[in-house]
Amino acid sequence: MTNMAQPAAVHIGATPSFHTQPLLSGLIDVPGLAYRVSATRTIDECTMKALRGELDVAEMSLATFVKARERDDSLVGLPVFARKLVSQYAFCREGSELSGHKSLAGRRVAVPQYWLTAALWHRWYLGMHGVDTAGVVWCPLADDRLAGMSYPEGVQIDWSLKGRGPADVLRSGDADCFIFARRPLDMTGLRYLSPDPAGEALALARQTGVVPVTHVIAVRAALLRERPGLAGALVELYTRALHHAAQEVAHEAAQFLPLGDLEQDRTRAALGEHWNEYGWKHSEPALRVFCEAAVAQGMVREVDVDHAFLRLEP
User: How buried is residue 260: exposed, middle or buried, by Cβ count under 10 Å (0-12/13-18/19+)?
Assistant: First the structure.
């Protein structure tokens, strides 16, 4: 009898986090799916390795994925997304008169990169608060991840702060606000832009029905054509990893977040039991909002959502 060759193990790239640790440790299995995982230090590294074809499957910045799809269709997105309540991550100096996104009209706003996923979400929030983003002076602290990015006419971009840190540009007064998807490491002399960042973030999510998507799991399209059933197996793999992480996250974080279990309960009560679930049904509303924002802000001409992402459920 001839032995049939087994498919090569799928090469997955993952940045260490609660939702990827079960994969990095090899704890999660799906029948018929062989995989190996390479840890990457940052989402930038993981994203760029995916774009260079060094990984079969990788967690990528959503904005970079959307732009990459405009250039070619070599990658396809699974309905496996990382989410964050992005609106809370806006900061200013202590003593500033600023209060909330609505107060940023005409201000100097620092961003890690202009076309960062979080920056697109924050500009969407500004629009919701009636702020004309063309009237804001945008101050990127680094070049955009992808070379050759264009910027819309009429947008004010000041590159003079490039290379500096967010806390530095805020404390010095060279920027009025800094927005991102996490807070500066050193908050000395700084504060949140909103007087109630948690309450406002939850209210926005309930009002819009959107919990922002920040990362997507992308797969080489050629590999999916070669291996029917692989996409479904990968969604199942990531879903099992997510459920394991949800059960263990409060225990793992207890040294720093001793009320983690109670906080998870509060979050589910505020956002719904399935707010963080994978699958197309749970992800489509936020995904379409983001893609519409990417077009409206001029990052891409259009996004064919129904072909860029697979409509699968766990």
Answer: middle
Cα–Cα distance measured from residue 196 to residue 202, given in angstroms and rounded to the nearest whole number: 10
- pLDDT tens digit string along 116-147? 999 999 999 999 999 999 999 999 999 999 99
Structure tokens at 282: 């749970």
Strand partners, 220: 75
58: nearest Cα among 213, 244, 284, 216: 216
Q: How far is 110 from 35, CA to CA, in rounded Å?
A: 40
Which domains, and CATH codes, for the chain? 10-83+211-308 (3.40.190.10), 86-208 (3.40.190.10)
* pTM of this structure: 0.95
Number of residues that this document lists for the chain: 314
- Residue 136 CA to residue 214 CA, distance in Å, equals 23
82 touches 283 (CB < 8 A): no
